[in-house]
Amino acid sequence: xxxxxxxxxxxxxxxxxxxxxxxxxxxxxxxxxxxxxxxxxxxxxxxxxxxxxxxxxxxxxxxxxxxxxxxxxxxxxxxxxxxxxxxxxxxxxxxxxxxxxxxxxxxxxxx
Amino acid sequence: xxxxxxxxxxxxxxxxxxxxxxxxxxxxxxxxxxxxxxxxxxxxxxxxxxxxxxxxxxxxxxxxxxxxxxxxxxxxxxxxxxxxxxxxxxxxxxxxxxxxxxxxxxxxxxxxxxxx
Lengths: 111, 116
Fold this sequence. Notes:
The complex is a heterodimer of chains A (111) and B (116).
Chain A: E1 4-5, E2 10-14, E3 19-25, E4 32-38, E5 45-51, E6 56-59, E7 62-67, E8 72-77, E9 86-93, E10 100-101, E11 105-110
Parallel strand pairs in A: 2-11
Antiparallel strand pairs in A: 1-3, 3-8, 4-5, 4-9, 6-7, 7-8, 9-10, 9-11
Chain B: E1 5-7, E2 10-13, E3 19-24, E4 31-37, E5 44-50, E6 53-57, E7 65-68, E8 75-79, E9 88-95, E10 106-107, E11 111-115
Parallel strand pairs in B: 2-11
Antiparallel strand pairs in B: 1-3, 3-8, 4-5, 4-9, 5-6, 7-8, 9-10, 9-11
């Protein structure tokens, strides 16, 4: 049972445009959500997070939106840059200490 | 302290052999986690330590897997009698948990295991 789903394995966006990465979850006990970015041959790097008491969190070019009723969150990157090309993982946390990850979305930003 | 360090970066082993990986967390972090990532999937939780105590183990962690964190510092993950299905990237992460705040994970670069 996949509790965190990223249904788009890949996304291509033109440099300067907005990238929108989506994530759905099924466990209503999740109360904290994170996005990680991963380059090849490196471990995941924390990008941005959001608590379930909020519906938006912004950090520079990155904004995460949370829709609890739809059990959906999204990551917006604007403007997108070629250096943003990486695999993006959505992760969720509830009362358990560990994170549950989605399968990732490969973002390619075209120059 | 330059982050979470994992050794070796790559390991190729024959089926049936034992392998051991090491993780050195960020020194002030009291929590240490092991995850496994296979191709096309996100990291899957294996186990975690609070200081030297192993507090939780996933069902993914079969009897052939054992993890230790002596003295609450570095950790080792051993896989006995390796199988081809054990081929994956093994990721270690650490974090700081205080009485009032839980800080985010920092991941290492991982150990890529190939069982031939």
